[in-house]
Amino acid sequence: MKLFSPFELNGKRLRNRIVFPPITTSLASREFEITEKMIDYYSERARGGAALLIVEPGSVNPRGRMRTTGIGIHDDCFVGSLDRLAGSIKKHDALAFIQLAHSGPRAKAVPPDDRPLSASDVPVLKGVIPRPLKKGEIQAIVEEFVLAGQRAARAGFDGVEVHAGHFYLLSNFVSPLTNRRSDEYGGNTAGRAKMVCQIVRGIKDLCGPGFTVIVRYNNKEMGEGAMDVAEAAALGREFKAAGADALHLTSYYLPDPAMNNLLTIPATSTPGVDAPEGCSLEYTAAVKREVALPVIGVGKILSPEVAEQALQENKCDLVGIGRGIVADPDWPLKAAAGEEILRCKSCKLCMKSVTTGEIVCSVNSKLSRDRLK
User: Which pLDDT does position 371 carry in this prediction?
Assistant: First the structure.
């Protein structure tokens, strides 16, 4: 099977094509620190056979954290614990990456006398008008991302993923739906891509060409004038020119009634029970045909058969098995051996649980089954 064939990413060998993508666990402390529970969680998934693990978002700025118990990578004091986390992954012959993120208009930690930050004043959270960043502020955040990348390299990570999807800060710059700027950070594809490109170049310049940088962004979005595959491909070419080594293509177009009262874009990047398996792969394939970079495909890929088909049909180069590996950390080893896998139910309990506490799974008994009701 192609799924278990090796792959080379920026000179680094992956033993198979399976990626564990970033999924928030809320296992860090309120002080942004890595905990033993988090190290055990990622170590178990590396031991289960995934070739590349991308650790959940690390906040490049305290006000940009995703959760009150999210990872911090905005200060040198976190390098030691990040080093332990990276080492716990790499000892199992897996590559260790970490996602760099700023939540922007979806921030959980905004000073009371300020507004959440974004490219423009287009709201993402209902009733919350973000404050457009000034040029000097943009440059300061670019530097925060770059320095966070350097900390990841010092901590022993093989690379980073720059999060420009799901309508967090950078996503609001690259999306034509939310970027209404008329300066050099808006107006056209190159302008919307500029902030991300500056981050990619900055990390490459500081950490060297051998340090791998992936860009994650939406390949399709809900709404008139939103991201489509043609624009996503054009952005991909901009990111490639800036030095990106791979693209991680996600989507934000599936309606989600649970978001109607929360978000102005009532969609989800997490396909539910009713969505077909591999529902985003056609959009991923359309971008891949236009951009000469390795592509990670995601979107409810739960079975080895669907993962293999995606690779055989050249829809992607690597497959992201997210909730499938949350449910069964041994998914890769079991798939290779033809053994039965504990299958994710697509119930989204893992996503809902982290808003109030640690990650929970309705299939995996190790993930606090006693907390289920």
Answer: 46
* Cβ within 8 Å of residue 178, ≥6 positions away: 118, 119, 120, 122, 124, 167, 171, 172
Pick from 105-109, 134-138, 169-173, 245-249: least confident: 105-109
In the chain, what are the domains? Answer: 2-371 (3.20.20.70)
Task: Record the pTM.
Answer: 0.96
User: What does the pLDDT read at residue 368?
Assistant: 67
d(CA 241, CA 54): 23
**In the structure encoding, which two tokens stand for residue 263, read together?**
């978000």
If DSSP codes are grouped into helix, strand and coil, which group holds residue 221?
strand
Averaged pLDDT score across all residues of the chain: 95
pLDDT, one tens digit per residue, over 8-54 is 999 999 999 999 999 999 999 989 999 999 999 999 999 999 999 99
Q: What own/partner pairs with CB < 8 Å and gap ≥ 24 does 192-195 have?
A: 192/119, 192/235, 193/235, 193/238, 193/239, 193/242, 195/138, 195/141, 195/142, 195/170
Q: What are phi and psi of 53, to 5 degrees?
A: -115, 125
Helix axes 229-242, 281-288, angle to 10 degrees: 50
